[in-house]
Amino acid sequence: MKVKSILVFGAKDHIGSAVARYVYKHAPGVRLKVATHSSENLPQLKAMFPHAEPVVADFFDLNSLIAALDGIEGVFQISPDFFNEDNLVQNLAQACRQTGSVKHIIRILGTPPGADFSMIPEVLKIYRYGPAMQHLVAKENYQRAGLPVTFINVAGYYMDDFTRMFIQPIINDRAIRIAFDRTLAWIDPTDVAHVAAELLLKEPNGYFGKLIDVTGQDLCKLSEAAQLFTEVLGVEIRYDGDETRFFNAIQPVFSEKWGADTPEYFMNYFKWEMQHDHLFELTPHVKNILGRNPKAFNSWIHEHRDYFLPPIKVLPAA
Ligand SMILES: NC(=O)c1ccc[n+]([C@@H]2O[C@H](COP(=O)([O-])OP(=O)(O)OC[C@H]3O[C@@H](n4cnc5c(N)ncnc54)[C@H](OP(=O)(O)O)[C@@H]3O)[C@@H](O)[C@H]2O)c1
Q: Which of 34, 67, 160, 281 is deepest in the core (most CB within 10 A)?
């Protein structure tokens, strides 16, 4: 079911923005609304997407969802970490019922492939809206609500985690400092976005209503990722898996973003993920849907080398 109008949530950020750009480039005739939950971000959206309609749509504000979904057939939906997925799906379902035009929703998930509620230990289960549980909760809610949804499960980590939450030790200490040396699949977030947009625009056969695990073309441990950084950047990037140093590094950042309990939560989450890292495996969906290979990790590192090795500024001669 191709759609003639699309609403993109999270449109100012790394995945939503790439969805909106892809839609405009490949289907300029599709009506495009770009959403943010805060009116403060509207000027940014207007500047980023002069051809689209910027809207304020908050998953916790039913009226804003009803207004944003007016006349919309396709929806791209992504949630932040630690998010109340019960309220979200309840409100979205209600807004879809009231507006009546939505034909297809793409929802981004993030769990190890094949994970289910029975695999989540109590120490993580008590946080219903933490990353271990929230996507399982969202998926169950979507299915119960009978919404026309296709799930894209990001079955690994975004490569740009290294230019976002894990960058400081690379710059300051030339180290990838992430405890629990586990095997993960790595994907360029732009590839995730392009798959989402393509499923909304063209809907290749056999994907509607399914859950697909998407990955790039690299599956490796964090220590092996450090070797890859070393090869590509031409300077040694060590792997540092020390748990205490890692905890001390994430503690201030995660506490401020998600609350005081969350550094410990993530230590438990990463440990659990390591116990299940045999579940991560490469999948062919990016190539099958986009007709090209997903971005390789070494190319991605090369393209982003200035983040890790900021160019030396040469002062003009006095
Ligand atoms: N990091 C990884 O390696 C990884 C791996 C697999 C899966 N994942 C999953 O990927 C997802 C995206 O993670 P991310 O950190 O990259 O997020 P992100 O790009 O920041 O996307 C989340 C979006 O939610 C929007 N938002 C926030 N509050 C909202 C509200 N009340 N109503 C409507 N929209 C709201 C934000 O935009 P506005 O503030 O403009 O509204 C933001 O763009 C998460 O669900 C995560 O679990 C992550």
A: 34
Give tens-digit pLDDT for 228-272: 999 999 999 999 999 999 999 999 999 999 999 999 999 999 999
CA of 174 to the centre of ligand 1 (A): 28
Supply the pLDDT for residue 115. 96
Residues in contact with ligand 1 (CB, 6 Å cut-off): 9-10, 12-16, 36-38, 41, 58-60, 78-81, 108, 110, 131, 154, 157-158, 161
Please give the distance, rounded to the nearest whole angstrom, from the Cα atom of residue 258 to the centre of ligand 1. Answer: 13
What percent of the chain lies above the pLDDT cut of 90?
Answer: 95
Q: What's the CA-to-centroid distance between 249 and ligand 1, angstroms?
A: 22
The continuous run of DSSP H or E covering 81 comes out as none
CA of 206 to the centre of ligand 1 (A): 27
Nearest CA to ligand 1 atom 22: 80
Q: Position of tokens 């120490």?
A: 123
This prediction has a pTM of 0.97
On whether the CB atoms of residues 36 and 11 are closer than 8 A, the answer is: yes
pLDDT at 228: 98
Under 8 Å CB-to-CB from 237, ≥6 apart: which residues? Answer: 170, 174, 175, 176, 226, 229, 230, 308
Confidence of residue 312 (pLDDT cuts 50, 70, 90): low
Q: Can you tell me the distance from the alpha carbon of 108 to that of 9, in angstroms, rounded to the nearest whole number?
A: 11
SS3 state of residue 10: coil
DSSP state for residue 181 in the 8-state scheme: -
Return the residue whose CA atom lies nearest to atom 7 of ligand 1.
Answer: 110
pLDDT tens across 80-92, in order? 999 999 999 999 9
